[in-house]
């Protein structure tokens, strides 16, 4: 009888520890995502407030802008493909580097749109993101099928955006903007559920592996937020 109670207590303690570790990992995801967004926003604002630096990036030559874009893709590709081989501190530094690079390229929005419309769109994005992330966390419906459709849709709008660079169709751009909002709203819920399931399958333990999982989860949600914000800004933003 004593062994039964001891075993029951052990199971309860392990469950509590597992739930506590799971909660800690989920908090890390959102804290790191928020910190990355803060780095991006501050970097973008700093560049937009310094005409000389801004001119070096967006001046007569577009070479620097392309260098930044290629560097962003390189950092994300490195994190995605080599995360298991990287130490956690190195992966974290790469995430910070990506946040800075993204801030440099996004600084242009402060000159393209009014400050009030940027702020309004940011709060709309934050509210939408929070709601959909909550849906992804609490829903019991498997969103993996929806995720596949959304990824295919994302590929479609990337192709449409490239085509529209040469076509210059306002109508096509409007369609892409609204589809982009729909896709990243859905991806926010899908990625949240995916992160939750990964932590549950890992047993909710806080170790080097799950720390990297949390970092990659924060990167995924960071990208969802940034892209949702940009598509909404193109719809609701007031141009200068």
Task: Summarize this entry quickly.
The chain is an all-alpha fold. Helices cover 86% and strands 0% of the residues. Helix 3 packs antiparallel against helix 4 and helix 8 runs antiparallel to helix 9.
Class by SSE composition:
mainly alpha
Averaging pLDDT over every residue, what do you get? Answer: 87
Counted by DSSP, the helix tally is 9
Number of strands: 0
Largest sheet: none
Share of helix among residues?
Answer: over 70%
- End-to-end distance: 76 Å
Low-confidence stretches: none
Which percent range describes the beta-strand content?
under 5%
Based on CA inertia axes, which overall geometry fits? globular
Structure explained in plain terms:
This protein has 240 residues and is mainly alpha-helical. Helix 1 crosses helix 9 and helix 7 packs antiparallel against helix 8. It is globular, with a radius of gyration of 21 Å. It starts with a helix and ends with a helix. The relative contact order is 0.15. The model has no long low-confidence stretch (mean pLDDT 87).
Question: What order do the helices and strands come in, and which of them pair?
Answer:
Layout: H1 2-48, H2 51-58, H3 63-82, H4 88-106, H5 109-112, H6 115-138, H7 144-167, H8 170-201, H9 208-236
Helix pairs in contact: 1-4, 1-9, 3-4, 4-9, 6-8, 6-9, 7-8, 8-9
Please tag this protein with its features.
86% helix; 9 helices; 240 residues
């Amino acid at each position: 009888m004593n062994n039964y109670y001891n075993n029951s207590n052990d199971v309860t303690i392990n469950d509590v520890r597992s739930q506590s570790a799971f909660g800690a990992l989920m908090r890390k995801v959102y804290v790191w995502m928020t910190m990355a967004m803060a780095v991006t926003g501050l970097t973008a604002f700093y560049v937009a407030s310094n005409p000389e630096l801004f001119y070096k990036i967006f001046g007569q030559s577009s070479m620097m802008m392309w260098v930044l874009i290629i560097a962003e893709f390189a950092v994300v590709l490195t994190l995605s493909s080599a995360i298991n081989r990287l130490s956690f501190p190195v992966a974290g530094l790469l995430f910070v580097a990506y946040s800075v690079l993204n801030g440099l390229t996004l600084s242009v929005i402060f000159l393209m749109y009014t400050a009030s419309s940027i702020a309004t769109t940011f709060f709309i994005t934050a509210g939408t993101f929070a709601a959909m992330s909550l849906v992804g966390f609490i829903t019991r419906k498997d969103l993996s099928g929806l995720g596949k459709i959304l990824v295919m849709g994302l590929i479609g709008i990337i192709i449409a955006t490239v085509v529209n660079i040469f076509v210059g169709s306002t109508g096509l751009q409007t369609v892409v903007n609204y589809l982009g909002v729909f896709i990243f709203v859905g991806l926010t819920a899908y990625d949240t559920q995916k992160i939750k399931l990964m932590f549950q399958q890992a047993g909710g333990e806080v170790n080097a592996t799950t720390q990297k999982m949390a970092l990659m989860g924060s990167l995924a949600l960071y990208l969802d937020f940034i892209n949702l914000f940009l598509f909404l800004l193109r719809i609701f933003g007031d141009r200068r």
